[in-house]
Every structure is written in structure tokens, then in C-alpha cells.
């Protein structure tokens, strides 16, 4: 029996260029919705509705909801990595770079990753979990590289650079705490306080 | 019509003493289950089954699931506060107290509070949310008091003690990070590294 021609999916876009932009729109919409409501509460239908595409269009681009979640998370984390790289390479002074990085991350904490992962993990396969964790790990490695360099230049004291990177990332969770926007005048003000504590410590000199 | 005698609830305990211990058991079981599976995934039936009491017995002690959640959370946070107070009062040296406190908190991060709250918040009323937040706030205030004292003694540099308390609590989230038990030999080893960074900072001297 000759194979029937594949039925064109409703809403399937015609051009490759268009494909990319629709794909991007779906990813960004999904990221925002997952971040706001968590994994389970968000349906593909809702994501489609929000960005004006049909559910079959989403399935044309992404095999499943867990797959879309994985792509949304890794895209978000890769963006954090790019911003981190840009900010730390741009400035001569480590402290300035860290303040700018902290300002960006406190304003938009990727912290919620842990919360989302906890909820989503049982729906994801091993490979999807690993890919998200690797994207997160790459941010730590990039930070650790800069810390390693600063140790070689005797700007930082000798310490496990990965430990410093993870500590720094953990401190960015200050951006998640309730009421913080009220208590600190701005993300910049909080960033300066956090970086200063990270570098100088709380001890009297 | 004469009022019918109230039907005794199945499993309702007979003695006041017993009431207290059953109540405690329900609270601790609920805390453990909520912490493990989150708010929604845990049913009162499941809590009852785990501690060998009927659902009506739970309802005899707690008006509702949100109410039980609130009591479980505030009990847990009050315990963290008591342990904090005990550890910081027991030692002469701030650093030793902080290391012991960090060791205890890294081993049993109350961090997951934020995750649980995020999930549970839509089911709680304003008063319940406020009571949980206040119990958390009291831990910060206690820590801030000790930091204030250490500033007066010129052990710590002048800084907003509440900011230091919140930073210290945020650092305890290092206990939540994936793989940490593998990467650091023990909670004590991680506690020492974190407290040392908190006090001395990462900068070369």
C-alpha cells in the first residue's frame, strides 16, 4: 500500500525563517509561564494561546511538554551564561563585573530553577534532567574560571574556585526573598552590598 | 427536640496527654511529608495513614489542610529558631557558633520553605501566610541580634545586621544544591568553608 502523504499539521508554518521565530516565541512564552506558575500548572494549550499558535504547531516544534520545558530551561540558563560572560569580560575590575552581574541576576533570579526542577523532575527523563543540570553547571564553570584567574592575579585568596562560584550563585537567591524590593532601594544597591560581603566578609578589619 | 449527643469521632483520643502526643505526631509526620512531596501531593489521608490515625482525628486537631500546613511550617521554623538560639548562646566565639549552626542547617535545610510556600500559598489565607512569614522573620531577627552584638564588640564590621542575617540564611541554601553531599566531605566541612567565606570574604589580604 503506498504511503499516504503526511497530513500537513494545522498551523504548521511554511518557511524556515518563520519556523525559527515561532520556535523562539514558543520558548520564551513557555519560559515565562513555567517561571510564573510552575511546570504542572501550565498546559501546552495555554502556551499556544499566549503566543497565538495552535497546539499542533507546538508539537511540530517540540516532541512533548517535558521536551519544551527542557529547551526553555536550557535556553534561559544559556542566556544567563552569555550575560555572565559578557559582563565579566567587559570590565577590568573583578568587583565591578561582579556588581553588574549580581544586579542583573538579582533582578531576574534564575534561582527559581530549583523550584521548577523539583516539581518537573518526575516528568522528565534522565537525559532531559542532565541537559538542564549541565547548562547550570556551565554557568558555575564560567564563574569559577574568572575566580581562578583572579586568584592567579592575587586578587582573591586561594580557595576552590567552584566553591566560590556556587557560593556566589547561591547569594543571588537574595533576589528571591520576600519583601526584598521594599527593603533595598534597588537591585544595584543590593548587588553592591552582596558583592562587598562576598569579597570583604563580615569581620571587622 | 433535644440535642442528640455529639457522635464521638472515630479515633478521637480520650486523654489530654494523649491528645498532645497525637497532635505532635501529626505535625511531625505532616512536616516530613510536605517537605518530601510538596503541599498539593500530600493528602490528609496519607498523613493519617503514616502516623496511624484516622482522617477525622486529624480534623479533630486541625481545622483544615492549610491550617495543618501552617502549624507544621511554624513548628519547624520555631525549632530552627530554638536551635539557633541554643547554638549561638552556648559558645563564646561567634565563629564557632556560626559553624555549628551552619552544620545543623546545611544538614537539614529549611530552605525548602520557599519552594513549599510558593506551591501552598494559593491555598492559604492571609493570616496563615503571615504567621509562617513571621516565624521565619524571627529566625532572622535572632541572628541579627547576635550580629548587632558582635558589631558592638567590634568583631564584625558595621553593616545592617538584618542584611547579614538574611545573607547568612541564604548561604544555608548551599545545602540544597544538587550533588553537594558528594562534593564536600561532610556538612561540617562545608559549614566551615561557608562561615569562613562569610566572615573573611574571598579577597586576598
From TrEMBL, chains A, B:
An example molecular function term from Gene Ontology annotations: transcription cis-regulatory region binding
Keyword line: DNA-binding, Repressor, Transcription, Transcription regulation
Top-level lineage group: Bacteria
DNA-binding region boundaries: 43-62
UniProt cross-references to SUPFAM superfamilies, sorted A to Z: Homeodomain-like, Tetracyclin repressor-like, C-terminal domain
Coiled coil stretches, renumbered: none
Protein name: AcrR family transcriptional regulator
Amino acid at each position: 500500500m503506498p504511503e499516504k502523504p503526511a497530513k500537513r499539521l494545522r498551523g504548521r508554518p511554511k518557511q524556515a525563517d518563520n519556523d525559527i521565530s515561532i520556535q523562539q516565541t514558543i520558548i520564551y512564552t513557555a519560559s515565562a509561564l513555567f517561571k510564573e506558575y510552575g511546570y504542572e500548572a501550565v498546559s501546552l494549550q495555554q502556551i499556544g494561546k499566549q503566543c497565538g499558535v495552535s497546539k499542533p504547531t507546538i508539537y511540530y516544534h517540540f516532541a512533548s511538554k517535558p521536551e519544551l520545558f527542557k529547551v526553555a530551561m536550557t535556553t534561559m540558563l544559556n542566556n544567563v551564561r552569555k550575560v555572565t560572560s559578557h559582563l565579566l569580560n567587559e570590565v577590568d575590575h573583578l568587583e565591578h563585573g561582579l556588581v553588574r552581574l549580581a544586579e542583573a541576576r538579582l533582578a531576574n533570579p534564575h534561582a527559581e530553577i530549583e523550584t521548577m526542577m523539583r516539581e518537573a523532575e518526575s516528568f522528565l527523563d534522565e537525559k532531559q534532567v542532565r541537559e538542564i543540570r549541565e547548562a547550570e553547571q556551565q554557568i558555575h564553570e564560567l564563574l569559577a574560571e574568572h575566580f581562578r584567574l583572579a586568584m592567579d592575579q592575587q586578587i582573591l585568596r586561594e580557595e576552590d574556585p567552584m566553591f566560590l562560584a556556587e557560593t556566589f550563585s547561591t547569594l543571588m537567591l537574595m533576589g528571591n526573598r520576600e519583601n526584598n524590593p521594599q527593603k533595598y532601594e534597588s537591585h544595584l544597591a543590593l548587588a553592591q552590598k552582596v558583592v562587598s560581603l562576598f569579597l570583604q566578609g563580615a569581620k571587622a578589619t
